[in-house]
Automatic annotation (TrEMBL):
This is O-fucosyltransferase family protein. Signal peptide: none annotated. It comes from the Eukaryota. The lineage of its organism: Eukaryota, Viridiplantae, Streptophyta, Embryophyta, Tracheophyta. Keywords: Carbohydrate metabolism, Fucose metabolism, Glycosyltransferase, Transferase. It comes from Vitis rotundifolia.
Length: 347
């Protein structure tokens, strides 16, 4: 709309426990391939580098409105105004405000999802994720897992073609999350956000149609975890592994917190079955990407049948006391559910 290039953003973690040492921002191109992004997103959004600016001091600061009186229409009108004279004379416009890069309801989910076709991890992170996934599957071979969750994948990258299947559980029980989720429950006046370790383990064990034995990878922020018993209490046939038991702590410890998260994100994304919390942005984005994979294979619903790339929300009770099936509503006109979470997960 403004006919401008987006100056390459920094990425930072969102934590709630004042873990300052984990909050160091990282440049976008340290995580994602910069040139590849611009090539794939050509015509939709373009990134630029600060080093390409001819005059870094000529910056106009655009203060966005806030509060309930600040409507979508007023927001968009303001942006249109600042794409004309005299503002188009400024090389850089910096947008400031509580939600400085547009309100969440400006973006339909299907438009926002286009960005994910452009985000390609840098080779270093991708290779580290390869190592972790290979280790998980190796453990599956060791225990003689013969489980195949779905037989209807024709895509060569689909789960049925993988040598050994595994479940990935975004086990959100770390101290920063427990503080955050309790505040969310109070704000939204619902009780379907926080999940105890026992609830997660019980519901994952009740996933309908899941064949065992099966390796379960537990994606947790180890530095924020205060419970050392997450490997205990799992249903017979489900074989839980976290980073230490899997023998991959050396891979993760080489990197800062955000890199560790990027590796875990990729490991969860590739899993045959993903189980997360629908009020977690991390889980919600994985469910969104897995939904996009399903749609590309011609699958429009995950309700009532086994599908490739299934996702579940363990914080919501589903059939047979298991987690609720989860498929992102691509027709939603707002990003609110993805940004802040929801108990309505399509099924």
């Amino acid at each position: 709309m403004m006919k401008r290039t987006l100056l390459m953003p920094s990425l930072s973690a969102s934590l709630f426990y004042k873990e300052i040492d984990l909050l160091q921002p990282i440049s976008f191109d340290k995580v994602f391939q910069f040139e590849r992004f611009n090539s794939l997103c050509n015509g939709f959004v373009r990134l630029g580098r600060y080093s390409d600016l001819s005059n870094r001091t000529q910056v106009f600061e655009l203060q966005k409105g806030s509060g309930r009186k600040w409507t979508i229409e007023r927001d968009l009108d303001q942006l249109r105004e600042f794409s004309k004279e005299p503002y188009d004379g400024y090389e850089v416009i910096r947008i400031l405000g509580k939600n400085p890069f547009l309100w969440h309801d400006h973006w339909p989910v299907k438009d926002y999802a286009k960005v994910f076709d452009c985000l390609v991890l840098v080779e270093e992170i991708s290779k580290e994720a390869d190592k972790v996934v290979s280790k998980i599957r190796e453990m599956g071979r060791r225990v003689g897992s013969k489980a195949v969750f779905s037989q209807n994948a024709s895509n060569s990258e689909g789960p049925s073609s993988l040598p050994m299947p595994y479940i990935a559980v975004h086990m959100r029980i770390e101290k920063d999350w427990m503080i955050h989720c309790k505040k969310l429950e109070q704000r939204f006046n619902i009780s379907q956000i926080c999940s105890s370790k026992e609830e997660i383990i019980g519901r994952v064990g009740n996933i309908a149609g899941l064949k065992t034995p099966m390796v379960v990878y537990l994606a947790v922020a180890d530095s924020l975890l205060e419970d050392n018993s997450i490997l205990n209490g799992w249903k017979e046939g489900l074989l839980p592994f976290e980073k230490k038991k899997l023998g991959v702590m050396g891979i993760y410890n080489k990197y800062p917190y955000l890199f560790q998260s990027a590796i875990d994100y990729e490991v969860c994304l590739r899993a045959n079955v993903f189980v997360g919390n629908s009020f977690s942005t991390f889980s919600s984005l994985i469910a969104l990407e897995r939904t996009l994979k399903m749609i590309k294979m011609g699958i429009t619903t995950s309700c009532g049948k086994d599908v490739t790339w299934p996702s579940y929300a363990y914080n919501i009770l589903g059939e047979l006391n298991g987690p609720q099936r989860w498929m992102t509503d691509m027709s939603d006109s707002s990003l609110h559910a993805i940004s802040y979470g929801t108990k309505d997960v399509s099924c």
